[in-house]
Amino acid sequence: MTGGSGTRALDRNGSAPLWQQLQQQLLDRLAAGEFTESFPGELALVDDYGVSRHTVRQALQQLRADGVIVAERGRQPRVAPAPEIQQPLGALYSLFASVEASGITQESVVRTFDTRADALIAERLELEASTPLVYLERLRLAGEEPLAIDRVWLPAEVAAPLLDADFSHTSLYGELSQRTGIRLDHGSEEIHAVVPTRAERTQLRCPPDVAAFSINRLGHVRGRPVEWRHTLIRGDRFALTAEFSASTGYRLIQPDLSAVKTP
Amino acid sequence: MTGGSGTRALDRNGSAPLWQQLQQQLLDRLAAGEFTESFPGELALVDDYGVSRHTVRQALQQLRADGVIVAERGRQPRVAPAPEIQQPLGALYSLFASVEASGITQESVVRTFDTRADALIAERLELEASTPLVYLERLRLAGEEPLAIDRVWLPAEVAAPLLDADFSHTSLYGELSQRTGIRLDHGSEEIHAVVPTRAERTQLRCPPDVAAFSINRLGHVRGRPVEWRHTLIRGDRFALTAEFSASTGYRLIQPDLSAVKTP
DNA sequence: AGTTAACTTATGTCCGGACATTTGGCAATC
DNA sequence: GATTGCCAAATGTCCGGACATAAGTTAACT
Question: Cα distance from A28 to chain B (closest Cα, Å)?
Answer without folding.
Answer: 19
